[in-house]
Amino acid sequence: MSSLWEYANPVKFLRLSERVLPVLWITAGICLVVGLVWGFFFTPDDFRQGSTVKIIYLHVPSALMAINAWLMMLVASLIWLVRRHHVSALAAKAAAPVGITMTLIALVTGAIWGQPMWGTWWAWDPRLTSFLILFLFYIGYVALWSAIEDPDTAADLTSVLCIVGSVFAVLSRYAVLFWNQGLHQGASLSLDKEKNVADVFYQPLLVSIAGFVLLFLALVLYRTGTEIRLRRAQALIRREAAVHA
Predict the structure, then answer these.
(1) pTM score, two decimals?
(2) How many CB atoms lie within 10 A of CB 125?
(3) Which tens digits make up the pLDDT trace of 12-57?
(4) What is the radius of gyration, based on Cα positions, of the chain?
């Protein structure tokens, strides 16, 4: 059985992603279309929240992926710091813009969902505040990569930033448990079946979440491959410049 570490080799990683990506794109598209159409057009209005509740099919999956994207970046950053595998550092870098997008979708849809329920677009609720700080950490992470010319130094510093920002990723996920006060509701998904949303909403929500997960994986694989090719191109340019110097 082949070791997972062999895919730290850029050539093997690219070969794997080329085989996997078509399947991921197709299955992600199917899940997203089925989940969103099912949720928005074939589920009833909630007896309290009305049709507003249907934004759950965008808000919950994007919020989950915003948090888990950062945790994926944390794992990749730790691998870089411990084993110095360049593919892991580039995977973390590739995931950051996707995480920013997911976080922004979650913040916007949360505001749209919250306004008719709370009477305000924003509240300094513990979970909302920690989520906003996570968004700022995403922005800082991308900016730090762009500000440092040496890629290994950039990978080192962004990895440290990722470790620090992981505190807010955890707070975003569990703030409702840490602080009882606050406007934000508890988790929509739970291992305790009694705490889940009703099945009529729950089933299409799971399909939507699957679509977001697969889309995230596809985007990260695609962007990581792009980063690897860009790194190769930059190395060739530097080599040519050194030869002609």
Answers:
(1) 0.87
(2) 19
(3) 999 999 999 999 999 999 999 999 999 999 888 766 666 778 899 9
(4) 20
